[in-house]
Specification:
The protein is an alpha+beta fold. The chain has 5 helices and 8 strands. It has one domain: Ribosomal protein L5 (50s Ribosomal Protein L5, Chain: A), CATH 3.30.1440. Helices cover about 30% and strands about 30% of the residues. The longest helix is centred in the N-terminal third of the chain and has 11 residues. It is globular, with a radius of gyration of 15 Å.
């Protein structure tokens, strides 16, 4: 059984003068296949309502624990945010950005969860693991 989630996800990626806009759009869509970025000032912006594609990449790369740590470290109320490296996204990989932004700028993702709770949505996107394997709640 699958729960119904109500989430608003805003993705912003800076586009530098030295970059090709379509390549930056590809980077965003590699992580968020549902995204349809639009050019606004010097950035691409997209709104999506699912992180399913992103979650699949987390599972495939086996970086669920890292993702959970980043998400919970940046959780405030019903919202969490994180940055990912643009260069890795070009290659279809997730590399969380910590510290100073990279030279090209990072892709910023802001997630607001309306239902159920942000914690439950994080568990859905990046479930807890045991011995490196996802542990799913019996109810999901």
């Amino acid at each position: 059984m699958s729960a119904v989630y109500s989430v608003d996800i805003r993705i912003e990626a800076p586009v530098n003068d030295t970059e090709v806009t379509d390549r930056v759009a590809d980077a965003v869509q590699n992580l968020f296949p549902e995204a349809d970025p639009t050019h606004q000032q010097s950035a691409l912006v997209a709104e999506v309502h699912t992180m399913d594609g992103f979650s699949e990449l987390l599972h495939r790369r086996e970086i669920l624990d890292t993702a959970r740590s980043v998400f919970f470290d940046n959780l405030e109320g019903d919202t969490f945010a994180f940055d990912v490296k643009k260069q890795a996204a070009f290659e279809g990989r997730i590399n969380f950005a910590v510290g100073d932004p990279s030279e090209l700028g990072d892709i910023h993702v802001n997630v607001t969860v309306t239902e159920p709770t942000a914690e439950e949505y994080i568990d859905y996107v990046a479930p807890p693991t045991e011995d490196g394997q996802p542990v799913y709640d019996e109810d999901t």
